[in-house]
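USER:
Class, as today's exercise, take the chain set out below, and explain how the chain folds.
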Amino acid sequence: MSSMYIKMHQSIFFLLLLIVIIPRAVSQEESTLEWYYEQASEAIAKEYYESATRYIEEGKKKFPDSSRLNLLLADLYYDKELYKLALEEYLEAEKKGEQDFYALNQISHSYGKLNLEQESIDYLEQILSIYPDSILTIDDLAWMYFKTHQLEKGEKIILQALEEHGADHGLFMTLGTIYSGLYNYEQAKHFYEKSIERALEEGDDYFASIAYYNLSLLEHNFYHYNSSLRYTEESIAMADRAPGHLARGELYQSRMDFDLAHAEYQAALARDTTPLTKVNLAILYQKFGRLELARKLSEEVLHSPELSWMYYYGIDLDRHYKDIHEILADIYLGLSRVEAMKPVSGLPAWIKSIFKGIKYRLLAYYHKQKFKVYSLQVGRAYLAEGNFLDAYLEFFHGNESYRQIALKYLSGAREIETRLAAHSEAFYYQDEAKLRRSPEMLKNSLAGFDPFWEKEEIARGLRLLIPLLPGNSEERLLAINQLYEINPGALLQYGFGLPLLLRVSLPEGQERDSRIPHFRPLLKRAGSLVSAVARNQGAPADNKYRYELWIQLEDKNNARFRLTDISRSQIVVQGSAASAGGSAGKRAAELIQGIIEQIYELH
């Protein structure tokens, strides 16, 4: 009995001892830094991010002097593209004594992702002072020098690195980009080709694709269009990336080939994680008159909070916003002109159209002013680093309202660039003609452009020329016809209408229609010089009336139409239009609006 009593007490004693010891052991395990780190890492691996941050925050409180958990949390934020939060944790780790290469490099990259270029440069220079043999740091620093227009600094550190450490395809490509920025065509091409050669030797097709893309941009910038197109194809063959399609799309756009350019931009959009493709699409849509699509894309890019993509591209915030505001200024000005020319009937519709046009005008003015401000800021940044060519071009754009000032900067840029690329003279001549508002110079400028590759500039010259020619003169109307042939979408947004022979047919057995008297005034409001001809009357022998619009009325709300190029006896576009009902004037306006929308679309 006593023996059983003693054994029972011994068992109770050991049980109580275990109850006391086990929690202490667990508590000691939980109190280690390693335990918190492992628990957080395991949670991150399982994508339990809330649990991970809870472990990290608890561990940071218990071990405030350790930087390990700061780095772990910083890496999590960085991977999730939360660069501001990542930077805070990396900097906190640095304060706790973290000075290794990885931590400092991540701080530099975080600053770069936040478009704080100078802070990124400061850390890269610090890293290089500690790790002078880091090729990665030299390449990153040279790239940041390029982004901040410090091209000579970038050239110097890469040439020194190549001399000390030997060939490197990354350094070759960055050096090629720097020489491209310095407008040194031969050296830029030389180092791009060396980077491609070495990348292919090392089996790095993806890198070769990037270098081929850069080489295509170089050739485009120096007006070597066939070579540029060939290198875009090489780039895409190496790796089917968005930039290769963008570069090829820009070449097709310069030929005013909407379908090919659009197909390339759509291919890029399917592969792109940056807004660059949307910007290119917006420009394409604006040029070809699809203004509402262009507006939506541009506004989306303007208001996007995600800007870290610029780290990998040779662009900064000021240049990005400058480009977007320029596009939006053109879009809203075009929308205001389209609204002013819209066929409307009745006082309420007319008043609504007036106010809508005024709103677009004000928005165009706002974005134009923002564009000018950013142009001057970008110009000053170029000037500070001694890049006079790009500085003068930005000052020219920022001062176009002040002719003499703009001419001065245009002349300065012209003197520099025409020595580097003789063909650039055609572009400068056209810009001078625009500033001087000289019809003769603009007419002469058209002959300076390649009729195949530079059709975009020919179209620009025509739309600058047309407003300077006498109204309804044969020369003006022929220029409008020529512009329409290149780009139907340009006309309405620049305030032009196609000269038209108008022929109207009634349903069989019907003698008159109350809508017909409205057609001619509505087409005139839409900018067209209109000459009406009877159903069976032949077209007059008049060169300015190259296009005939035939409208076949079917009933009180519906009609078919056909636009014919008389000079070629060729149908340009045909279709149907409908009205919703109402007065004769309202139905006529809706029919003409439906016809106009189709006439000025691509076909």
